């Protein structure tokens, strides 16, 4: 009988979250962004109202991508999460592309 186990994980983060801010006076710099003082974080740092709103598909491709990443949701910084909403007109296209 053979038995094997594999496990992979990231090391424990140094903090629970790092809300990205453009304040260069912020004390902590993580993942290419300055971190807001956690005591100053608000629910708005973790939400984005742009998803669920139909995008304007009146363009050459007939599609519109609405990103939701750290630029729109500052609380996503350091979490490794981003998403997008893609809206299509009838026969709309999302051309081949890569995500480096």
Automatic annotation (TrEMBL):
**Protein known as:** Cupin type-1 domain-containing protein
Pfam families membership: Cupin_1
Annotated Cupin type-1 domain ranges read 50-100
PANTHER family (alphabetical): GERMIN-LIKE PROTEIN SUBFAMILY 3 MEMBER 3 (PTHR31238)
């Amino acid at each position: 009988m053979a038995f094997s186990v594999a496990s992979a994980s990231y090391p424990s983060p140094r903090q629970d979250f790092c809300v990205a801010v453009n304040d260069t006076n912020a004390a902590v710099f993580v993942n290419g962004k300055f971190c807001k003082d956690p005591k100053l974080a608000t629910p708005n740092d973790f939400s984005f109202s742009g998803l669920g709103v139909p995008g304007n598909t009146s363009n050459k491709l007939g599609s519109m991508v609405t990103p939701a990443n750290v630029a729109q949701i500052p609380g996503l910084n350091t979490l490794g999460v981003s998403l997008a909403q893609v809206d299509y007109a009838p026969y709309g296209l999302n051309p081949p592309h890569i995500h480096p």
